[in-house]
Amino acid sequence: MVYQPREVFKSSTPAKKLVRALCGRTYILFSMPSTVHTAASKNQLGFTGDGIHAGGNATVGATARFNENGSLDISAYYYVKGEVEPPLRSLLGEGQVSRGNYAQWLGSEVIRLSYPGVDGQCTPVGISRENLIRRMANTFNASHPRDPDVSENMEHVLDPAIQFMMKYTVAGLPVPYFILLKAAQDIIAVAPRLMPSR
Residue 166: is it exposed, middle or buried by C-beta count within 10 angstroms (0-12/13-18/19+)? Predict the structure, then answer.
């Protein structure tokens, strides 16, 4: 009997129409097929980051709710520099959901962003779940001090994107926190279904 990997993992990507419309602008977009649950929030849904302040010109928000015990459930976050035109506003926080096996899920895009480079031009990038986990671990020395594919003096191509995302928070927590926590929660939820029955 040949084992067939089951497509039980879900991923979500922002609408292509929205991404195309935001070309040349600074933004962070992520959505999830279901919520991520955290008790680490500070019981208030505040947003911080460059350009997010009173009188700042940015569109920022999340699809989130607080529970009675103060924990937070969140399924989407968006930050866009400047105003988003009314026809596109309905696409913020929405995602196109797909299913896949574990390898496909790890390799699927989990966040899309566009950030200003040293030349002031915006660099758009989509980061897969696996690459986000690897770069966060390597950047913050959680796995080992440096990536063997990168010399000590060289920066990995995704490191500026990681540093950019870390400047933005929801409820006092950096944006990548929610994505990493969701990955862990998905594995815990799905793993029992993948185990052979005894």
Answer: middle
Q: How far from 46 is each of 62, 74, 170, CA to CA, in Å?
A: 10, 13, 6
What digits encode the pLDDT tens for the residues 115-161? 998 888 999 999 999 999 999 988 776 555 555 555 555 668 899 99
Q: How high is the mean pLDDT of the chain? A: 87
Looking at residue 178, the DSSP 8-state letter turns out to be H
Helices (H), the chain: 16-21, 86-89, 102-107, 129-139, 159-166, 175-194
Cβ(126)–Cβ(112) below 8 Å:
yes
Decide if 32 contacts 75 (C-beta within 8 A).
Answer: yes
Instruction: Give Cα separations from 23 to 16, 66, 75, 104 (angstroms).
Output: 11, 33, 24, 27
Smallest CA-to-CA distance from 187 within 73, 74, 36, 72 is with 36
- DSSP codes of every residue in 24-81: TS-EEEEEEEEEEEES-S-SS--EESTT-STT--EEEEEEEEE-TTS-EEEEEEEEEE
Q: What's the pLDDT tens digit per position in 61-72?
A: 999 999 998 899
Which pairing describes strands 109-116 and 58-66: parallel, antiparallel, or unpaired?
A: unpaired
At residue 175, φ and ψ (nearest 5 deg) are -50, -45
Residue in the structure block whose two tokens are 């060289």? 154
